[in-house]
Design goal:
- The structure is a homodimer.
- By secondary structure, the first copy, chain A, is α/β, with parallel strands linked by helices.
- Helices cover about 45% and strands about 20% of the residues of chain A.
- In chain A, the strands form three sheets. Chain A has a five-stranded mixed β-sheet, with helices on both faces. A three-stranded mixed β-sheet of chain A has the order 1-4-5, with no helix packed on it.
- In chain A, α7 links the parallel β9 and β10.
- In chain A, α4 runs parallel beside α6.
- Chains A and B meet through β5, β8, α3, α5 and α6 of A and β5, β8, α3, α5 and α6 of B.
Chain lengths: ~240, ~240
């Protein structure tokens, strides 16, 4: 990511609560061949236990989705390598929780003793559903091993391991999500991840509104650009 | 392991409840250059949710420790790549729960984005204790990310990440352990793992009896040999 420690320029994190105006005023501005450029900051928060959480990029999607659909109050889920569950209140991002779901899946599927027993990555809806269900109830480091034990004792087909593991991790994430405080749950995703999370939400009976992540990203960036360069935005509008 | 699917001869799993006599009668017997040899079976159980669990090797340690110390009723913790928490009742192994704690630690420390921020593997008792504490309370896939976020926002030294991560995983394991049903908790371990788990047990205030894993293994194997070859054992005794 261009604004990360290993990117072009390290951009700061602004603390929650954060809105688009705050992101824009915290931007790192520079020029590329004479053209104005800006890197938006990430967002940080601190949980009640005193540990930090950070995001970089998702804040634009979340605030973009909020503005575009006029949702001011929601619990927004953005699945991914590092899934985010963010609380949007009065149009501002007030807090969030990250889960290393996608990264753990890759590590367990490709490099673990459990993954070594898996055959292929075809989607098995029944195994996925079983995984989601057990993942919401069992300690994660234990649940993961059940895939290996079930295969070794003949209770699970090796071809089902990948889907079961994916379900376990998503189930554990759903069980650990922050409180929505009565607000609606928004699933901000696209492609295969959107399909998987939709299926998982249905397994646990969690109502949600799906929003396309790509549209939210473009919308959020356009809104941020208007905040960053109001004159330019006026010129384009005129 | 010689009795695993990729070992010399695949030995079965016997179901819980299991004792040393049961293990011996389920042994796979063969000869090596005319000398009698046997591979003991592993042990399997099924949890209330219908998923299997398996162990191979730890059952000898657990039953050996029980017989040697005359403990018939305990919850036994054997830390490792795949940690086991086993219930010993009336001298028999009646059930257990596996956690992929050690394997997850290696994957996260060596191959993840969180581990990439860590510097070295020196033991930091304070960071370890914080990890144990947070690991008992937070969803694991979220807690893991806090190491990265704390480093990025200046709240944790990169040199503390390894200990903190280790603490998180052990804390999550402790929080997810099976019920002891009033029995004492036994820590069956040796070396660095014994030290780490002792420290973790103290953080959560869990009383336990430490037993050396090596002595338990030798004791268990000797007892199993007597069951397998009673005449030989009598000859040695005479």
């Amino acid at each position: 990511m261009v604004g990360s420690r290993t990117g072009w320029v390290e951009a700061d994190y602004v603390p929650c609560p954060a809105d688009l105006a705050g992101l824009s005023s915290g931007a790192t501005r520079f020029a590329i061949d004479g053209h104005p450029a800006a890197i938006l900051p990430g967002v940080s928060c601190r949980n009640p236990e005193g540990h930090a959480d950070v995001m970089r990029g998702e804040e634009v999607q979340i605030l973009g989705a909020g503005r575009l659909t006029a949702i001011g109050d929601a619990l927004v889920c953005i699945p991914g390598t590092h899934s985010k569950w963010a609380r949007l209140e009065g149009g501002a991002l007030t807090g969030f929780r990250t889960f290393v779901t996608g990264e753990l899946y890759e590590l367990l599927r490709r490099r673990s003793l459990v993954g070594a027993l898996a055959e292929g990555d075809g989607f098995d809806p029944a195994a996925f559903g079983q995984g989601v269900d057990y993942g919401t109830r069992a300690p994660l480091a234990h649940a993961v091993f059940s895939a290996r034990a079930d295969v070794l004792t003949g209770g699970m087909a090796a071809a089902a391991v990948s889907s079961y593991l994916s379900g376990l991790l998503i189930g554990a994430e759903l069980a650990g999500r922050p409180e929505a405080g009565g607000a609606e749950v928004v699933l901000l995703a696209a492609g295969v991840l959107a399909e998987r999370y939709r299926a998982a939400f249905e397994v646990v009976g969690l109502p949600f509104r799906p929003i396309d992540a790509e549209a939210a990203t473009i919308g959020g960036l356009a809104l941020a650009a208007r905040e960053l360069w109001p004159a330019l935005a006026q010129g384009l509008a005129g």
